[in-house]
Write a structure and sequence with these properties.
Porin; 200 residues; 8-stranded antiparallel beta barrel; elongated; single chain; mainly beta
Length: 200
């Protein structure tokens, strides 16, 4: 499902490139508010010798972007906390929350239509907190990694747009239980977001 949405967003963006150019101007700001569905990859590695599965979650997402040049913006992604259950060997034994602040450089393709695609790359710092486990004291290290994205805005007014966005995060975190290393959680999630974005 998530990979299908990613492919659809990318293909739609490429089709929109055929339209004539119209710049998004240097000095513009945009603010976005929406919801995001975060879906970790299916195989999350091995912890304490057991196969690990981290479930998906939905949360509010927020973006602020400043255009440093025409069509080129620096964007900050923030969110309310995502919550995840962690299954070891098929049994839910732990949980955690995280925040995913991400700074990206985005290129918005110039079009002369209501459809405005873009792509971006950046750095993500994932902050884990409120870790709980039936097995003892759980600690998940914060993670620093790359993030890639593609999105498509549909202009509903001169300054407002509905945005479909797909992101991928490289998130690998070392995990300790009762102070002992038990492995690395390989999360690497997709985030599918729908937002309203307003330009100032």
């Amino acid at each position: 499902m998530t990979k299908t949405l990613a492919a659809l967003t990318l293909s739609t963006a490429l089709v929109a490139l055929a339209a004539p150019a119209m710049a998004q101007n240097q000095g513009d700001w945009t603010v976005g508010v929406g919801v995001g569905y975060l879906d970790p990859k299916s195989d999350n590695g091995t912890l304490a010798g057991l196969d690990t599965d981290i479930d998906a979650n939905t949360s509010a997402i927020f973006t602020v972007e400043y255009f440093v040049q025409d069509n080129l913006g620096i964007e900050l992604l923030a969110a309310t906390p995502f919550s995840h259950s962690i299954a070891l060997g098929g049994t839910d034994l732990a949980s955690t929350k995280h925040l995913p602040p991400t700074l990206s450089l985005n290129y918005h393709f110039a079009t002369n239509s209501a459809w405005k695609p873009y792509v971006g790359a950046g750095l993500n710092y994932t902050i884990f907190f409120d870790e709980k486990s039936a097995l003892g004291d759980l600690d998940i290290d914060n993670s620093f990694g790359v993030s890639l994205q593609a999105g498509l805005d549909y202009m509903v007014t001169e300054k407002g747009a509905v945005r479909l966005n797909v992101r991928w995060f490289d998130i690998d975190s070392d995990v300790k239980l009762n102070g002992t290393d038990i492995g690395t959680a390989e999360i690497d999630p997709w985030l599918v977001g729908v937002s309203y974005v307003h330009r100032f």
